[in-house]
Amino acid sequence: METELIKEINRVLKAFPQFWDNNILHRSMVIQAINQKEPKLIKALIYNEKIKSIYSTIIDGIVIFDFDKLISLLKYKEYWPDSFTKYCNSIGLTTDGKYLDRNTDVVLDFPFKDCVLEGGMKKEDQGKDEIYYNEIIARDEIDRLFSSKIFTNTKRYSANGVDKNITDFCDDDNLIIKGNNLIALHSLKERYAGKVKLIYIDPPYNTGNDGFKYNDRFNRSTWLVFMKNRLEIARELLSDDGSIWINIDDGEQAYLKVLMDQVFGSNSFISNIVWQKKYAATNDTKFIADMHDHIIVFTKNKNMWRPNLLPRPKELNEKYTNPDNDPRGVWYSTNLSVKTFSLKNYYEIISPKGLKFLPPPSRCWVISQEKYQDLLNDNRIWFGLDGKSRPYLKKFLSEVQDGIVPDSLWLHKDVGHNIGAKKHIRELFSEGNTELFSTPKPEKLIQRIIHIGSNEGDLVLDFHLGSGTTAAVAHKMGRRYIGIEQMDYIDDITLARLQKVIEGEQGGISKDVNWQGGGSFVYTELMQLNQNFVQLIQQASDTIALKALFEQMRSKGHFNYQVDLDKVLNKDHEVDGVDHKLSFDDLPLEKQKCLLIEILDKNQLYVNASEMDDETLSISEKDKAFTKSFYQKG
Asked: Same structural domain for residues 3 and 150?
């Protein structure tokens, strides 16, 4: 079906028969007429309330109409029946609304507020059939795309095995969701908005080797919009005292920081942590060895966020002794002088043995003379065992805070490295394709993040779950968790790993936290509709397979706009703009796939919860019951 916006534009243009050939709109003629500011057409467009609400701004009673945006829709919008796509140009480097191939001065541009990049995450060199594509979704359809979805194939994993008869869900349940993470996040907001204490994600790094597939030549802006869509809904899920931690490499960390400033506010920035991910440089490095990643930390509300202190290292406590047998216990001596000079704190100290001491040149004492006398009377000034050394201040271990403030440099000796994490995955799965994860994160790294940013019982979210490290660590640390993953390895790796955690596996941080097993989690999937066809299209090996699949789509698929199905394989399609057309058979295989994906209704990738009672969808009573329980309805 057509969008409401396209219907309204067509209705307005019906008053201009010169633009039509029977029911086919000559969009190039409309564009020319707009550029020439033909009065009747301009009036018709401006006076239409629907079109005006989308393409105009009112300033001091004056209507400012953005004709360039309207022309962009007329040129490229995939909702037009005779269009192919604007994938090459939809998101990119622009100046004055024109793209790089037409300009020399460029800026980074997010062209539409409602631009949506869909797809999941793909790790390095895996060769998996994961989907990345982007389309500009009509404003009047975004709410439907992001509405709550139906859950299916729900199970509860526990020490007693796998229970497939799950019809209810409660706040204490841990949750793993299989499906598109953007759509899954929007399905979470009804129940979890403002309730997630900590989010950690390890998204695709946009390295050029990580399998992040682009449909335009401006891959950085595509990646940024991909991240922006997900960060905006992630912020809605965070509690006011919550924080988000994103693992990223040097290539994108600066761009990601600027994007997060926009989404979360620059005042919400906490730190850019440098994590030493390798313990040794490799000899095949061409320039400078890559030894670290970044972990960018933001909060929802900086005034409310309070990080937990890290445990004090044993070596710090070992410095405390008690040479004078002070009844208050072990202590550590600190320097009594400081560099910042204050005349008030410059005075002569006379020791109990009559020795005189002044601060070193250009220094002063850290305390006033009155405060010094109080500390001396309290036996907190130390002149050495013989009473002849310079004065020092005694600090008792019993009075030191039970922990240390985290810093922004995390060494592999403290939080682990990629090689150790990879070894852990191999040990967990003696069989299976563990090479899917070439750079898994060590459990000790995630342990530190979860320790700093949450407490027992708090809710932790990872929507790029991968091998399941975040969920595994959260489980062992007594946190509740939600994990989202789209890829099929979730069955063989992620779920299997969490089952091993429940059974009490002793890798990673298990010994550090005295993990003995136990607990449970609920697994569920977003119920697929057109998403199933999208996957089949991506997996097709040639044009013959695509044509056979198209015949299945005709009988079972759901289409996004008015399209003549009889002409999809038999007419010329636009490739770039309105002037370049090719037949379906002449298109490259990837373009053919894009075309068939394009005609599918993206609002119907998964089944909306509002369509639960649609008899044609054959939704089971068990799925209905669990979905209602999750959304806390009836």
From this structure: no
